[in-house]
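Students often ask what a 'structure token' actually looks like in practice. Rather than answer in the abstract, let us consider TonB-dependent receptor, a protein of 667 residues. Its sequence is given first.
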Amino acid sequence: MIEVLLLTTAGALPPVVVTGGLRNAPLLDVPSAVGVLDAEALARSGPGAQLSEALLRLPGVWAADRGNAAQDLQLSVRGFGARASFGVRGLRLFVDGLPATAPDGSGAVGHFPLDAAAQLELLRGPFSALHGVHSGGVLSLRTRAPQPGPTRWQAEAWAQSDDQQQLRLQAEGGADASPWRLGLAHWRSAGQRPQAKAERSLLDARWDWTPGWSARLNLHSQPAQDPLGLTRAQWQADPESTAAAALAFHSRKTLQQQQLGVAGGWNDWQLRAWASARQVRQWQAIPVATQAPAAHPGGVIDLDRRQVGADLRHEGPGWTVGVQLDAQDEQRRGFENFVGPALGVTGALRRDERNTAFNGEVYAQSEHRLTDGLALHAGLRLGQLRVASRDRFLANGDDGGRQRTPTALPALGLVGQLGAGTRGFASLGQARETPTLAELAYRPDGSAGLNTGLKAQRSRQGEAGLKHRDGVWAWEAVAFAADTADEIVSARNSGGRAAFANAGRTRRQGLELQAQGPLVQGWRFALAATALSARVRQPYAVCGAPPCASAALTVAAGARLPGVPARALRLDLESPAAAPWQAGLTLSGRSRLWVDERNSDAAPGTTLLAAWARWRVDPDTTLTLRADNLADRRHVASVIVNEANGRFFEPGPGRRLSLQLQHRSPR
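Now compare that with the structural description of the same chain:
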């Protein structure tokens, strides 16, 4: 796990120390592209209601708030994860070293405690594979350590002009040997469109005790309506409209999640252990007639998932070895979403299965100094993912089965000193993205059984770059490329069963630039820019609109991968923080977003401007005023990739004003 520690130095950029799984090391000496945001940068990015506010300050990542809390954040790194229509795929997610990614590769970020964040870190490139499969990138949030002493608290209230509100409360204290922190947060939104109301409640607690041990508890609840996407005609006519099907079926989702974790170490050993539970109930807007075939799983999803795991590692001088075990057990049922004429209710049972996934891995990483200014880094992760499904609803055939996928993920890198505060680095590696349980559920030929012929997609990655940090200026420039084979694509969508297959080759390559430094009169800038070419290299066939019994549409060589922009930029300008007043401007822009693999349509590119001002009323009270989308531009926030009914577009909000008040108890 990469952990980034920011060491504060007054009047200068803080030096950054990275622990890449073997020992503390300066960020400059890591052979990877790494983006870091500290707590102040996170606070200046927005009110903290959505993780996407901050992530766009980093290059290589595309993060979009869908305006639809039922489908979570849209997140991809260098094009990996872009095909996900809900949740997060293709990436590894961590909070304080505890995984937010299940063994089958599905993940979510809605439970990230942003108000307790000490730093947010994004690792890109070949060395991310050392964290396991589904590692097109590694996103890690580290919470701040609780401070001992008398109980102190901090309260925050935030309101936005589009009828969003958030309340957050933090408290901490305790003895020197056992400090604690407790955070409570509640967010609600009336929705910018009909059938888009949502709430999110979060409890996050941490207890530390010597020597170096900590325990975390995270409880997350999120009921949300689902307004679905819009067709191009609907978006152009009225971007604040909602699909009629969403209203008719009252499409919605409820989510409950609980996670408990422990981390610590003794001598040269470190241990992390975790257990979590997740319950999802979702009522979809699937027409009654569509559910008529016997094979259809119904329009209501009922999922109960359990996950347990542990990671044990041993560190020596310049090396680390470890083992990780992670198990997932889920009960998935499906029901009709109607009873007689009543729509949007739970009806007859149509699916009942138990699914399991178990991932066992061993890993090693080492560093060898070739000369005083040149270091060689090497790593290897070996594992096997085993998945199984037992069908308990046999009226439509037995869809059970088993699959085993072995993985071997090597990485090799060099770091060389080019001058004071400047390094050059290069790395190569291999990665795998195994199919999720949902992607394995059905076979492309329509026969019963688990889709055991679906293989993991394989990629070879490389990157090279320069990075500099001298206490005043900091920048990083990176060129990267990733060739992928056996890309997972849609092969059949008929009778309510979506099946997937492996297809041709793709290439993702591009340039990334991140920089920050001084301007005039104490103002500073922060820049993140990405140029990405993500294209198909070998033509393949995909499924069209349902019902689709076979993949009959051709994706031509040269087609762009959907859901990710070819160009993205974020520029932040910020005034000095020493005065009672501080202000900032944010310019963000992206190119168009293709909606499907055939590039049949695209959301147009857009550029947005935001401004904020913060007034420190007294040492313990802060008032912040913010305006987003100042020009009130009509735009698409995200696209639903390969949406079967052509409802690809999720509209972004117009001009929004927000007010945030924060107060903490005197120190």
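One point worth highlighting: The chain has five helices and 42 strands. Ask yourself how you might have guessed this from the sequence alone, and why that guess would often be unreliable.
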